[in-house]
UniProtKB/TrEMBL annotation:
Source organism: Ancylobacter defluvii
Domain of life: Bacteria
Pfam family, one: Pribosyltran
GO molecular function: amidophosphoribosyltransferase activity; magnesium ion binding
Record-given protein name: Amidophosphoribosyltransferase
């Protein structure tokens, strides 16, 4: 296997979510530190002569899902080839030289934002290992809620882990299975894990995809020139001119080889509960997720918000870019003019070293600046898609007042976030979530707005086309608002289900 990388000497052995760049009072300003962090994006293609180039283009379209690292693994009929880099897809693959080092007709790719494991090269995916039956590379979107528990167990049993990513657990579990066929070994591994996942992997003969039984993380099937594509979002199909075929079903395992396609369903059927934040925040607006236009759903959220939380105001102003579709919907439903009262700088990097506290306090202006000619003397309704810590909202409200806004009414097109996520969204701990520590009036005072309102939980379900949330059988994974987690949280509780213990014993 050829393997070219740019090494980073930092080491993290905890496997816990990153926090250093988000600690208040540090000298590193992160303009995205008060947002929900992206998950990851996966892409795979089978049988195409330009597999690596197509994968790189697909990863470009998925860049919004992770900006910390990117990687591609290919197989050329004899050897596996890997290119994994820290940074953006364009930095790693746009010059063409890396693509030349990735020959082959099968490829898998990954863009990463770390939710477990540090941002170091050994955690960059796709991860690769030589197994009993040959090489295996895997890319993962999501988070295993028993990943640390399984990791400790396999290390006690003698495994040597090379990364701090929960994804590596899958390589070990596949390797430990005693089944004769790769597909059977892969399914054995899936039966041991819990949480949220969309996997795309390759061997020397197969491209394999899998989605968790609740369908928390998305995965779609496409087709390009007769060759199958697996990817996180339909926007990645659009950029390469591929045809959307269908969503990979929750709990489905799909395997492509040169002579057949296998569709397997190794789990009992469950009522799907896809992640609601794909619609609120993560997916690109031009994607279609679960048959719904993300852009239209976000506009619908704005319509619902205008009905639930009207404001006496002159203008509707989005917090770009996340609040734009909802602000359009709020404007259309309320009859208030829509204006760009905030201009976003699209060329801000993820981090920026600032020498003094006074300069750090102005850091939000690197990403957003007020359009004074629009907001001066006006009563404005600010629209954003979510409120996490609230620190950026404080600065945006202050910026609007300094630009001359008479009144600032803040409206959020999702319910209050009161619980952290363990399925691939990097949210702060509960004591850092503003809505978990303040009531509505306390939040309003904290951010300094004249009024504050959130979309209700039933309102967000109405925006999806339902009458409201089915409290007995919720239609989506919405634990960040409700605290109702749809799977066991073994790493948090320490309680390993007996079924997992018995399966682990069989695999040992």
């Amino acid at each position: 296997m050829t393997h070219r990388t740019l090494e980073n000497s930092a080491i993290d052995l905890t496997g816990e979510r990153r926090a250093a760049s988000r600690q208040p009072g540090t000298d590193t300003f992160d303009p995205y530190g008060d947002t929900l962090r992206e998950e990851c994006g996966v892409f795979g293609v089978f049988g195409h002569p330009d597999a690596a180039a197509i994968t790189a283009l697909g990863l470009h379209a998925l860049q919004h899902r992770g900006q910390e690292a990117a990687g591609i693994v290919t197989f050329d009929g004899q050897r596996f080839h890997s290119e994994r880099r820290l940074g953006l897809v364009g930095d790693a693959f746009s010059d063409g030289e890396a693509i030349k080092r990735l020959p082959g007709h099968i490829a898998v790719g990954h863009v990463r934002y770390s939710t477990t494991g540090e941002t170091i090269l050994r955690n960059v995916q796709p991860l690769f290992a030589e197994l009993d039956g040959g090489g295996f590379a895997i890319a993962h979107n999501g988070n295993l809620t028993n990943g640390l528990t399984l990791r400790r167990q396999i290390i006690r049993d003698g495994a040597i882990c090379q990364s701090t990513s929960d994804t590596e657990v899958m390589l070990h579990l596949v390797a430990r299975s005693k089944r004769p066929r790769f597909t059977e070994r892969f399914i054995d591994a899936l039966k041991l894990i819990e949480g949220a996942y969309a996997f795309v992997g390759l061997t020397n003969k197969k491209l394999v995809g899998a989605r968790d039984p609740l369908g928390i993380r998305p995965l779609v099937l496409g087709e390009l020139d007769g060759h199958p594509i697996l990817t996180s979002e339909t926007c990645a199909l659009d950029i390469i001119g591929a045809r959307f075929v269908r969503d990979v079903e929750p709990g489905e395992v799909i395997v492509f080889s040169s002579d057949k396609v296998e569709t397997l369903r190794p789990f009992p059927a469950m009522t799907p509960r896809p992640c609601i934040f794909e619609y609120i925040y993560f997916a690109r607006p031009d994607s279609v997720v679960g048959g719904r236009s993300v852009y239209q759903v976000r506009k619908n959220m704005g319509y619902q918000l205008a009905a639930e939380a009207p404001a006496e105001a002159d203008l509707v102003v989005p917090v770009p870019d996340s609040g734009v579709p909802a602000a359009i919907g709020y404007s259309q439903a309320s009859g208030l003019p829509y204006e760009l009262g905030i201009i976003r700088n699209h060329y801000v990097g993820r981090t920026f070293i600032q020498p003094t506290q006074s300069v750090r306090d102005q850091g939000v202006r690197m990403k957003h600046s007020a359009n004074r000619s629009v907001v001066e003397g006006k009563r404005i309704v600010l629209i954003d898609d979510s409120l996490v810590r609230g620190t950026t909202s404080v600065k945006i409200v202050r910026m609007m007042r300094e630009a001359g806004a008479r009144e600032v009414h803040f409206r959020i097109s999702s319910p209050p976030i009161t619980h952290p996520d363990y399925y691939g969204i990097d949210t702060p701990d509960r004591d850092k979530l503003l809505a978990a520590t303040h009531d509505l009036e306390g939040m309003r005072r904290y951010i300094g707005a004249d009024s504050l309102a959130f979309l209700s939980i039933d309102g967000i379900y109405r925006a999806m086309g339902f009458e409201g949330r089915d409290n007995l059988q919720p239609q989506f994974t919405d634990h960040c608002f409700t605290g109702e987690y749809p799977t066991p949280l073994t790493d948090r509780t320490g309680e390993v289900p007996s079924r997992q213990l018995s399966l682990l014993a069989e695999a040992s």
